[in-house]
């Protein structure tokens, strides 16, 4: 899931250049549907800043999880497991190449591919409203942004995090 969140985050960054986004903030609902038509529902909030590049995905339901992404790494904080995972990205240039190849299908629809998987991004009045893709397990993921705000002020503190003493730290 982290890899796809990184791709989506970078894709949003790429779209930011095309549709004039410097910041993005929204609540979201993510639905993951498997091939038996069973659906998991997640709810949370996302923040994106182009300069400096920073993204935070905050999952609030059904479980709390925080994902912080910058240009070279991601940190996943999972309070229920009392652990934080730090991941470095070695091939970010490949990801940016992928994003450069994203195609505008209509003024409201962009498509990128990653490892033969299609990522659809839908806009309304120039605002990102929905993302849809199939993950590596072939589950359909759809993220719907609720009352998204673009180009508003975001307090940089939202991208700060602290890991409590005694938690497991994983470095990948």
* N-C termini distance: 15 Å
Number of domains: 1
CATH superfamily membership: Lipoprotein localisation LolA/LolB/LppX
Helix percent band: 10-25%
Largest sheet, strands/sense/barrel: 12 strands, mixed
Q: Name the shape in a single word.
A: globular
Strand coverage percent: over 45%
Segments where pLDDT lies below 50 for 5+ residues?
92-97
Q: What is the arithmetic mean of pLDDT?
A: 84
Strand order of the largest sheet: 7-8-9-10-11-1-2-3-4-5-6-12
The arrangement of helices and strands along the chain is HEEEEEEHEEEEEE
Cα-atom Rg, whole angstroms?
16 Å
CATH topology: outer membrane lipoprotein receptor (LolB), chain A
- CATH class category name: Mainly Beta
- Please tally the helical runs, counting DSSP H or I stretches of 4 or more residues: 2
Structural class determined from secondary elements: alpha+beta
Q: Please identify the oligomeric state.
A: single chain
| Overall strand count | 12
Q: What is the level-2 CATH architecture name? A: Clam
């Amino acid at each position: 899931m982290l890899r796809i969140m990184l791709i989506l985050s970078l894709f949003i960054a790429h779209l930011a250049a095309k549709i004039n986004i410097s910041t993005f903030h929204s609540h979201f609902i993510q639905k993951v549907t498997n091939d038996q038509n069973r659906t998991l529902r997640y709810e949370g909030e996302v923040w994106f800043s182009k300069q400096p590049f920073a993204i935070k995905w905050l999952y609030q339901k059904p479980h709390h999880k925080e994902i912080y992404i910058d240009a070279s790494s991601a940190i996943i904080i999972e309070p229920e497991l009392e652990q934080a995972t730090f991941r470095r990205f070695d091939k970010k240039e490949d990801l940016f190449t992928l994003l450069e190849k994203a195609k505008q299908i209509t003024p409201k629809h962009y498509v990128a591919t990653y490892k033969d998987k299609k990522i659809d991004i839908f806009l309304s009045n120039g605002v990102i409203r929905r993302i849809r893709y199939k993950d590596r397990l072939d589950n359909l993921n759809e993220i719907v942004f609720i009352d998204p705000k673009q180009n508003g002020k975001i307090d940089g503190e939202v991208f700060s995090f602290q890991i409590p003493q005694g938690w497991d730290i994983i470095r990948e």
